[in-house]
Amino acid sequence: MNVIVKVAARLGLLGLTLWLVSVIVFMCGQILPGDVGRVMLGPFADADAVAALNHRLGTDQPALLQYIRWLGHALRGDFGLSLSFQSDAGPLIVYSLGHSALLAAIIMALLLPLGIGGGVLCGLRPGSLVDRSILFFGIAIATVPDFVSGLLLMMVFGLWVGWLPLSGSAPEGSNLLQELQYLILPALPLVLNLSCYVARTTRAGFIEASAADYTRTAVLKGLTRRTVITRHILRNALVPTVAVIATQTGYLFGGLVVIETLFGIQGLGNLILSAAKARDFPLLEGGVLAMATIYVLAAALGDLLQTLLDPRQRVRTGR
Fold this sequence. Notes:
Layout: H1 2-31, H2 36-41, H3 47-57, H4 63-75, H5 89-124, H6 129-142, H7 146-160, H8 176-210, H9 213-220, H10 225-254, H11 257-263, H12 268-277, H13 281-309, H14 311-318
C-alpha cells in the first residue's frame, strides 16, 4: 500500500512538473527574438503577407490563447509545423529521439557493468592497490571534457588503427548491427566519463553498507560471504547509484549536444540545437518539452526503484 501511495504521489508531482515545464518552454519561445511569419516567408517578404500568415497561424493572438491551443495540440502529440523543415515537428522529434535512445542504450549497456563492477571491486578492498588505481584513473578521466576525449578516441580508433567508423551515422539501409557499430565510438567518451562517477558512488555506498549494523548481524548469523554481499550489502549500496543512473538517463536522451554534433548523429540534442539556430519555434518547443518529459520520467522511475530497494524509504512513506 505504501508503494502505491508513493507512486500516486509521484505521478501527481510528475504531472505538475510537466505542466510547469510546458509553461516555461512556451514562454521562452514567446520571448525569443524573431517572428514566425517572417521566418517562414523570409526577410524580404511583404509586411502584409507576413501579417496575414501570422493571423492564419494564430501567432498574433494573445499569449494565453496561444498557450492553451499549443498545449492542447501537444497533449495529442501535435507540435505544429516545423518552420525550417516544412513538415510536422512530431515525426522529426520521434525520429531524432530514436537515434538518441539507441546511443543511450549502448552507453547503458557498457556503463552499468563497468561502473557498478568497478565500484564493487573497490568497495571489497578499500585502500588496496586496485582501489587506489581505479580511483586515480577515474578522477583523471572524469576531468577530461567529453569533446576532448571524443577527439582523442576518434584519432586512435578511427584514424590510426581504423577499427571503428569516424561518423556516428550509419549509411541508409544499414541494419541494426551496423548502426550499433557506428555508435560505439560516440558512446565511449560518455562511458568512460560516467562510469567513473557511477563507480565512485557505488564504492561509497558499498563501504557504508559493509559497516552497517544489519551487515554485522548477518555475519554473526553465520551467513556466507556471498549471501551477505548479494542480499544485504549490494542491495543497500545500489540505492544512491540508482539515483545517479536515473539522472544520467535523462541527460543521455537529450543532453548529448556536443557528442551528437561531433559525430554527426541526428539525435534529439542535435535537433534542438538546429531548431534554436534556425529560430524554428514549434520544433524547439516540442524538442525541449520531449527532453524535459524524459528527464522527469527517468527521475520518477529512479525514485520508485530506490523505494523498492530501500525498506527505510517505504517506512518513511507510510508514516
